[in-house]
Amino acid sequence: MTSSNDARTAAAPYQSTGSLEGRTILMSGGSRGIGLAIALRAARDGANIVLLAKTGQPHTRLAGTVHTAAADIEAAGGQALPLVGDVRSDEDVANAVAAAVERFGGIDIVLNNASAIDLSTTDDIDMKRYDLMQDINVRGTFLMSKLALPALRQSANGHILTLSPPLNLDPKWAGRHLAYTMAKYGMSLTTLGLAEELKADRINVNSLWPCTLIDTAAIRNMPGGQAMVQAARGPQIMADAAHAILTGSNLAADGAPSGNFYTDEQVLAAAGVTDFRPYSLGAAEDHLVPDIFL
Prior knowledge:
By secondary structure, this protein is of the alpha/beta class. It has helices at 3-11, 33-43, 66-76, 90-104, 127-153, 171-176, 178-197, 217-220, 225-228, 236-246, 264-270; strands at residues 24-28, 48-53, 79-84, 109-112, 159-162, 204-209, 261-263.
């Protein structure tokens, strides 16, 4: 992460009442952006982070690799196991689950972070991009969650957290970017279904989504992305919100620990945050760009 993001980490208004010390997180992606921010926040508690990500060598357009992320995690106080692999591969995901169990003795949290984005209309979407989003977003989320279930059942605090939006059948979201909407809602349907299916196993399953645009490489690389991120928040807000969920904050009105579609602001407000300005990259709160699906 950049020094400016590190400064925001120190200034962030979220004050934790729980810890992820000693807990093992298996994360898809995490070389950069929101995933890395979540991993670094957990590492400050002394968590173990297993990263399954494709970027093993430096990329011409993307900062960071799974190895540089692992070094940052260990510098922050956690233990890291970097694995170069593809969430679309059954073998790579199975190997990542096995490696996590072998290295750290189990898995407490699965964090479905890897995602592909293309906001093209149906006329314009390339079917290779369509397939990529379905394979990474939907199949990857389902596969990693599925293969980790035996290990999660052995955890005293099993949790699956997926970065996907609340399910909203307002036609405007499908109408604006149908292919992407189907891919992200597929992730959210996985949350909905697994939360119900795993009740007896006491594995909590939830989703988390930002209220505003977040500064990520995916956004920066979109047409006009460099200008868009000027009205975004840094990824630390998602890191703090994920931490609040995973440390057991009772956020749902009815006290249900599973099957929730949280927003970052909702989670942090419940944790006592009243000022979100430290998370901004400079724009005033009323000039931030709302994220899609909300």
